[in-house]
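Q&A log
Question type: sequence-to-structure
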Amino acid sequence: MTKRIKTHLFQLPVEEFANTLTHGVGFLLSLLGFFALVALSWIHGDPIVIFGSVVYGISLVVLYGASTVYHSVTSYR
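Response status: OK
Response body:
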């Protein structure tokens, strides 16, 4: 009754390169977006908006940075 699901345990080198490249672009864009978002929220002047913008921006930078590093050091099997 139950079927086994085949899992794809590894990625091809070209897939890892594409992941590294796209996540690296996401990292750079998240840096730009972080500074733009904080600058716009600073103009608004509300401390809660500034805090939320900083938390959101930092989380994007960390997410894409960590993902870029992970995909760039993943061993090719």
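Response note: The chain has two helices and no strands.
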